[in-house]
Amino acid sequence: MVGKLFILFGLIAVASATVKLQEMFSWNVLDWNYPDQYLKQQALQTGALIRENALPVGIERWRNKLFVSVPRWQPGIPATLNYIPLDAPYDPSPKLTPYPSFKGNELGDCENGLTTVYRIKADKCDRLWVLDVGTYGYDPNVTNVCPYALNVYDLHTDQRIRRYVFRPEDIVSSTFIANIALDEGLTCDDTFAYFSDELGYGLIAYSWEQNKSWRFSHSYFMPDPLVGDFNIAGLNFQWGAEGIFGISAGPMGADGYRTLYFSPLTSFTEFAVSTRILRDESKVKGSYRDFKVVGSRGRDTHTTAKVMDSTGVQLFALIDQNAVGCWNSALTLKPQNVALVDKDDVGLIFPCDVKIDDSRNVWVISDRMSTFLESELNYGEINFRIYVAPFDKLTEGTVCETNAPVVQTPKLLLNYASQTPLYNSPHLESISQIPSEIFLPATSPKTSTTSFNSFSSKNIYPKVSSSLRFSKQPSQPYYFPSSQSHTSNKNPWWLQNNY
Ligand SMILES: *[C@@H]1O[C@H](CO)[C@@H](O)[C@H](O)[C@H]1NC(C)=O
Ligand SMILES: *[C@@H]1O[C@H](CO)[C@@H](O)[C@H](O)[C@H]1NC(C)=O
């Protein structure tokens, strides 16, 4: 009898645990670091900190920082942009530290502070791209405290190096923007950012070089009215109006442009457009047919976030299935070519953001958002989790695995390079055409340029190639702890070689 029970519990444990994704951090409720206990007590007493109101929604890893964003949907959120120092002694439920500071996160200080931030993205030039949507509260109780403003930080100095307020024409009355994708060219100046307007059904492009934005509209940005019914974690609800949401740029193609993949949240269909169109303001009109239908992921594949790696494999959060899915863009997008890379009916409830870092680790955050919004979280249990796994481990054994990585030898790229003498071909390879085998997970501070002086047009990518050279041992540097061991490990495995 005892033996039988034991086996039963064992099976349950296996059935409700991620296999490939390793749980790194988890929280019942979030908390913040304050400079001292007095200030923290004061924040608790005045309601500046109400821990139960905080829901983490976005992540990004840059070197020794894991950024975590928390929208100001309710009062008591001391900072909307935060990080966890990855080189600190391991704490399974770390308190958040505001980035760049408490002051830089002041609600309603439009010029200097961030009010509400959703997804964030770091680039190869060590800049962090952050859209402050400027809102306080949540539908239907939302106030636009500040205008939509893009804020870009130099991650070496933690200084904001640009603030760009969206033009009134970029926004409509129903605008809601959560997602950002970057389109990195050959120089730091040649960077575009794209923002999906979920409820205004638009796509906004921003050019770093021109410091200018423009807005595309398209019927492919609309929700599919047939799939507005959601069932997540035992809750049934209807999100029928949710349009273009998850967006991600693929690797650079032979023509020197990337493909921006996108899907409405209320849809199972994937669409795409070349960045050749998006980068060109004049294409705002007359480009209807440049937007393409890629295919269908199949039933129950509402997705909140997606990311594509340099080999053209896309990972996406699957909120109906408590899972992360994959698709290799070398194959037709149809249900047979979509696989789950991991699934967990407890831990992965509402996978909310997926990112790939420079070391080809995949980071996933799950946050039970649907329960938070449509019902109530139980703070007696774990609600928020951050997972990590090497990219190639995740796709191993699935239809998405790239045996022969897609290596492109773009002709146009070389033309670009000759116009940009600072940029030679080893660098080119390091951007997007590196086969997965030659990525090394380690990027030591020594091998990347440390100062990013003032973003002049002379700036080129840091010399990442030296850290990517050229060990054909993709799996060796990755070390997986057993699930118990990482709690006592002072040097977490994902940093062991890195810093
Ligand atoms: C809207 O905000 C007001 C003021 O903060 C609050 O009293 C009210 O309960 C909120 N309503 C909803 C539906 O959240
Ligand atoms: C970019 O545009 C914004 C307007 O939103 C302006 O305030 C800022 O000074 C500009 N920055 C640069 C570097 O031109």
TrEMBL record:
Protein location: Secreted
Annotated TM spans: none
This protein's GO CC annotations: extracellular region
InterPro entries: 6-blade_b-propeller_TolB-like, MRJP/yellow-related
Record bears the keyword Secreted: yes
Main location: secreted
Signal peptide: 1-17
Keywords recorded for this protein, A-Z: Glycoprotein, Secreted, Signal
Protein family according to the UniProt entry: Belongs to the major royal jelly protein family.
Role according to the record: Controls the pigmentation pattern of the adult cuticle and larval mouth parts.
Protein name as it appears in the record: Protein yellow
